[in-house]
Design goal:
Length: 374
């Protein structure tokens, strides 16, 4: 089996890293195709270094353009690469436009698609990520559902069980791999002058929160007023480039009463998460990591495609209204020492995925059609 690993953004690099390592361990023939959706050093190459990944075999370099243009460019370039490389399977991860484009290019050539993080649903069709997930699932041959909830969503949508494989999420593999390394190597707590358990960690970048002035203003007011209510805690905000760009564009002030930092490496961020008193975010990956690391989380959204974290009590939804953000932070601050079982798997998701793919590809030996003729 020859596997094309498609990635393009920070979370995809992190969550595909265990797949790359498992390919090496299991002698699976693979190549890495980076769409270049994320391209800044601290959103891209830092993760290749941190996670000791080989450089991508291809980088399409199509970041920082309107999404509609990127989908066209990514798909066109990927068609060329896939025609040349002739992979048997293309694996994509998550819900970005890189994922959608990789899927479209593969299906155009009759190549099988494996979707890691299949079945996640926010049930909010206004989110571009929801459209990407639903479309990618629809076109995929192998649906790698990370949790029971994701499997249930797929079954309810009519997908047959022969396409669904519940494997856990490779984020657990990545966290287990990097956590001790982070503890040994990261100097971020010293660098930011932080005391373990005495700070709150923040990220926010979702389009629905930062691309509308009123929502972004509300969210910033909520974060600021929360920080002002806890003078004994330091608030640390790792600011995504999209959020910084929109704050500048809308002429808003940077959030006050906190340390605003540029995005940091995975090891540094994991260290920050591990020792945080609480996490405030709208990120999908952070909701998972908070749950895995057992750090209470307040999600500044009205819905989530990771509802298992909310049901376990480790995560709560606040939206972006300042009063709700403050109230939910207060509620979660009182939740000390809760015990819960991580619903995202046993840390061997990447190996499970590859074992399944190898087995399935042996029983479905039809090779890619004559790609060059398509
Ligand atoms: C994308 C994904 C989102 C995911 C997020 C992870 C889509 C539709 N969205 O959102 O689902 O949660 O990645 O972080 O695919 N920028 C830089 N440097 C970079 C990357 C981005 O400066 O390395 C800036 C650029 O101004 C760019 C903007 O951020 O235009 C937005 O980047 P983009 O990749 O379009 O979307 P994200 O918000 O990162
Ligand atoms: N992350 C990081 N450095 C940072 C902020 C986040 O390494 O400064 C990592 C974080 O640990 C998680 C991933 O980035 O694994 C989440 O990415 P993001 O929030 O950009 O995307 P989402 O998960 O929402 O798609």
């Amino acid at each position: 089996m020859k596997l094309a690993i498609v990635l393009g953004t920070r979370p995809e690099i992190i969550k595909m890293a265990p797949i790359v390592n498992a390919c090496k361990k299991m002698n699976v023939d693979f190549f890495i195709l980076h769409t270049g959706q994320h391209y800044s050093e601290n959103m891209d190459s830092v993760f290749f270094k941190d996670l000791e990944l080989p450089q991508p075999d291809y980088n399409l370099g199509v970041g920082n353009q309107p999404h509609r243009k990127q989908v066209g460019l990514m798909t066109r370039h990927m068609l060329e690469v896939f025609k040349q490389e002739k992979p048997d399977v293309v694996i994509v991860q998550g819900d970005t436009i890189s994922v959608l484009s990789g899927t479209l290019a593969a299906k155009r050539l009759g190549i099988k698609v494996a979707h890691h993080e299949a079945g996640l649903r926010s049930h909010d069709p206004s989110m571009i990520e929801e459209t990407n997930r639903v479309t990618t699932d629809h076109l995929s041959d192998f649906l790698f559902a990370p949790t029971k909830e994701a499997t249930k969503n797929l079954v309810e949508e009519g997908y047959t069980s022969d396409r669904i494989f519940e494997t856990g999420n490779t984020i657990v593999d990545a966290v287990l791999y990097a956590k001790d390394l982070a503890e040994k190597k990261s100097k971020i707590l010293e660098k930011l002058d932080l005391v373990k358990g005495k700070y709150v960690l923040i990220t926010a970048h979702r389009s629905e929160n930062v691309d509308k002035r009123t929502n972004l203003k509300d969210m910033i007011r909520g974060i600021e007023s929360t920080a002002a209510s806890y003078p004994e805690l330091t608030f640390v905000y790792s600011m995504h480039p999209r959020t910084k760009k929109m704050i500048d564009r809308f002429g808003l002030n940077m959030p006050q009463h906190m340390k605003i930092i540029e995005p940091v490496s995975f090891l540094d961020f994991l260290q920050l998460e591990t020792h945080a008193r609480l996490i405030m975010t709208d990120s999908g990956g952070l909701q998972e990591e908070a749950c895995i690391l057992k750090v209470p989380c307040v999600t500044m959204r009205l819905n989530t495609e990771r509802p298992e974290t909310v049901r376990l009590g480790i995560n709560t939804l606040a939206g972006t209204h300042p009063d709700m953000i403050r109230a939910k932070v207060k509620e979660m601050m009182s939740k000390d020492n809760i015990e819960w079982k991580n619903p995202f798997g046993d840390g061997k998701a990447a190996e499970h995925i590859l074992e399944i793919l190898e087995k399935e590809m042996q029983t479905q030996p039809e090779k890619v059609a004559e790609l060059t003729n398509q």
